[in-house]
Amino acid sequence: MTEPHHSPTPWPDARAIAARAAVKEAAHTAPVMLPLSEALGQVLAAPLAALTDLPPFDTSAMDGWALSGPGPWRLPTDEEDQGHGILAGHGEAAPLPDGHAVRIATGARVPPGATAVLRSEYGTDAGDGWLHASPAHPVVLGQDIRTRGQECRSGDQLLPAGTLVTPAVLGLAAAAGYDELPTVRRPRVEVLVLGDELLTEGLPYDGRIRDALGPMVGPWLRALGAELSGTRRLADEADAVYAAVAESSADVVVTTGGTAAGPLDHVHPTLRRLGAELLVDGVAVRPGHPMLLARLAPLGLEREGSGPEDAEPGSPEPGGPGPGSPGRGSPAPGSPGRGSPGPRKPEPGNSGPARPESSGNAESPRGAEGRRSPSGPARHLVGLPGNPLAAVSGLLTLAEPLLRTLTGRPAPAPGPAPLAEAVQGHPRDTRLVPVAFRQDMAVPLRFNGPAMLRGIAVADGLAVIPPGGAKRGAEVEVLDLPWSASATGQATDTDPAADRSAGRPAGRPAGGAADRQGGRATGRVTDRRATGRVTGRHATGREDDEDISPQEGPA
Fold first, then answer.
1. Which of 288, 415, 481, 495 lies 20 to 30 Å from 339, alpha-carbon distance?
2. pLDDT at 371
């Protein structure tokens, strides 16, 4: 009898579960102090508070003369000549008497008694020892003096925790007195690329194809703030996959391929053998619905709970298919999520019970025979489908929220945009469709099948299309790609009115990938085949009917 299919997790719930999955691990991670020269691209682990007033003393904003009182002003005599006057980097000058003036450079410390600075171009020194201000530029009390603490006072919070360290942040930190910064430790991620059919170089031949995910996934994870410990390519062998996952010291293991239930799909059997806890096992999204997220025991505490000797009846042997095994990608009797025992899985929308804190009597995933506390934080595994765009869907659905928590970055503000064209939806599931921004509209791009990368390569983001589709002009959420300006997680004050006047959706950055393509991507709006019109087969993703069919196979 065919086992009933489990219900996939709704797409919004899957992202929420992924964001919560590593909250405990993130909270227990100690900050890493880095010198300013090494902190670029890191995330602040604590608020940045000023260690000094900025500026630390009253300084001149311009080259000119420091003045005391109303003019005209007496200049120093030959005997009192001060050379170039007061220069930046020198100590406090002598007090300036009332009615006197002295040369001063930009950034120099204003002498006691000075009431204003007169710019060089606004003053006249006739050589008679007196300085006169131009009638067109009368002197105002305090003009061109940067007063102490004008920007901040010592102790003021300058930036919140979670701020991405940019070159400007480094400059501010240096000005505020910092030599090093407390940063969030980058989570270590290892990528395991599964598949006997994959080539690392050359052209496809004899049924073998180039590996597109190995070169793409690692850099994508780096862009999300992770430290990539390596990318390994594994054969479709159960023991090889098990050993690679069990022995990985990474905080997050990312696998590509092997997440379905065929005889050569070894991710689920590996998770069973490790006693992992499935947090997400399939997502109601196209492409990418076979994606998964699991919590692994700390390194060294895994248990082998389902080896060849104790596999459930009907399960494929770790080394390959057993008699009567179904083809790759089809449901296998006894496979996890198909009604048989497997890795623990919480209810959709719930990240499951929290792993207990380390204690002498805490029960670990080993069960009764392994009652000892974990030696470290739990690890996580993100299982991406093997199709390239489906893997991108998994990166944005599960990997991005998980790594956002581990890196301490705040959640990005929702970025809705109106669709330039109608997009056909899946009857039940969310669709993620590559789009490019043109003026204030999101233009759906061609080549959006699960195995295609041509659309995402020129996209600004992925539009979230609800079940049933979306009409032209409908506001939809757009997931930013990690290299887009608005995906940095910075808390910025945007001006919606200014955004609208610039011809882009409120809160969206100017100059996206579509603009940078010089019209190559965005100009497609004039081509019916390229705009995503539902009247064109090549525009809606129907070149791959499994995108929208209720009978869709693994994507």
1. 288
2. 33
